[in-house]
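Subject: for your reference before the review

Hello V.,

The reviewers asked for a structural picture of the protein, and I figured it would be easier to keep everything in one thread rather than splitting it across files. Below is the amino acid sequence we used in the manuscript, unchanged from the supplementary table.
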Amino acid sequence: MNSPIIQLIVLAGVAIFLILRLRSVLGTRDGFEQPRERAEQQPNPRREFEVIEGGPDRDITDHVEENSDDAKALAAMKKAEPSFGVSDFMQGARGAYEMILMAFERGDLGSVKAFLSDDVYAAFAGVVEQREKDGVTIEATFIGVADMAIQEVEFDEVTSEGEISMRFVGELTSIVRDNAGDVIEGSDTEIKRQRDIWTFARKMGANDPNWQLVATSE
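And here is what came back from the structure prediction:
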């Protein structure tokens, strides 16, 4: 057997070996993969998290009891102003509570006057004026809001006036000094909790997006 024939036999053997080797590594398509054309024709599986139309509004039920008077009032407010969100309101109320409370403690009501009704401003201003007459000053540091929740909701569909009463538990440190600078009450290390119920009001659908503080209680 001459050399060219031997070379052909060797090359043929190598080719057969490589084909068998690739087949064992890659496998076949039978019984496992769908042909690409058939796979593309398969309908997409139905999503497990479809939103059910007509279900409860979680923006409301996350904060008040479903089907309660408060929930119905909030739903009416959202109908009057579709862009209104309860969660967004509560986030804004938290910020307003800190801003107004600290302005009151510092005696700087001018910076928050636009967010106060005339009655609330007059009540706060009376306390600040009395402090000045007594010669006392307050040094306060706001720590945070330990708890907050909706207390009550009212909505007048005739006037579109909405009111939301919020219950706050604020944490702060406070020192009261006399006109000589001596501490007569409080501590800068002891955190005290302050409980308030504040009522915010606004005409739904109005161009002005700001809510006003119209009433306070403990």
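For the response letter, the relevant points are probably these. The domain at 65-217 is CATH 3.10.450.240 (Nuclear Transport Factor 2; Chain: A,). Residues 3-26 form the longest helix (24 residues).

Happy to draft the paragraph if you're swamped.

O.
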